[in-house]
Amino acid sequence: MRTSKVSRDTTRLIAALATSPRKTRSSQIRELRRFTHDGAAAGASAITQEEEVNGTQEDEPSTLDRVVNSRESSISSSSTRKRKRVTDTLTTSSITHASQTTTKQPSTPLSESATPATSPTKARRQPAKRIKAPDGAITVQPPTGWEETYNLVKAMRQPGGAAYPAVVDTQGCAHLHNADSSPKDQRFQTLISLMLSSQTKDTVTAAAVARLTNELPGGLNLEAILDVEPERLDEMIGKVGFHNTKTKYIKQTSVILRDKWGGDIPDTAEGLMSLPGVGPKMAYLCLSVAWGKHEGIGVDVHVHRITNLWNWHGKKTKNPEETRKCLESWLPKDKWHEINGLLVGFGQTVCLPARRRCENCLLAEKRICPARVVNRGVKREAKLEVKVEGDEVEAKEGLDVEEMEVTAGEVDIGEGLHDIEDIGKRKQRLGAK
Question: Rounded to whole angstroms, how far apart are CA atoms 338 and 3?
């Protein structure tokens, strides 16, 4: 079979360039150079004749040139990679890794790629915030999550909860009236119980009310208080705090009720606060218990202290009256009646003034209360001191200032004092001269 010279040269070239496992790259390069040097002229002449026969263009590169150039480029690049093995290896691996990442990356739907999945985060609890209106009025924005806090405390105050039973549940002022008495006498008994309870333990108050009921002729009613001598009345309530001053206030109040209110207690907060020694706390509690009118919140030291621990006022309130105004600005009115007994019992059993029992509290367990105590450490005895006319009264751990039984002495209440709650406070702090 006859073949053209170009075909024979091509066959010989391919045979010479065929990769042999025994030949090194250097020998291949030398063989290629020798072949191209010896047969350059003959190859060019043969290719020219073949192109004339086949009608190819002179400027088109020949097959031999393409093969030789391709092989030289391959061998040259191989030699370069051998000299720069470290650099080329890193580059090649990077390119390979990038190509694999590009080709093997699974396709993602447009909707999923546009909205990346994020784990839901719990909303941060914000304290109450005070907002000042253009007219100067200040309102309080409720703290976030207050309903959960309220409901958890309510659950702890139910039978079986950590804050049940409490002293206030059985011996609070709302439970000290005699169920066998007339409604008018029951209302009067509630008012007297509240006046006796200031800065006195509930147990001591309950004992004093029981003694009045048993020893006064006809029981505890307006006529019996009007007829009893002040000395005898003071003796019967001698266990309560500041009994001398309370005796004077009770006698004055009885006269006012007889002369101005027809023998009954006032049915408005303003009327109750007009009585000697009756302040906002007593007035709203008495109005709620005795008349069933929930026109305000009765804020005592427990409600004042605990709501400040929870940051329910936007800023720390200075006294119970300021606390009352803040709570009434945002707390739903249907909770005004129950919040006092709810937090008083909670403060007597779990959230004590001197040593809070956070290990028994659901608010601390769920990390809701910002004032929770963790790793309390060594138990220490807390002491409170109250100065009364130069005498010092020491309060042991767990005893509240309001429930403190003061026996060191009495103080003379000046004209600048209106509420029994102010007994024992320094005159310069109250503005009295």
Answer: 115
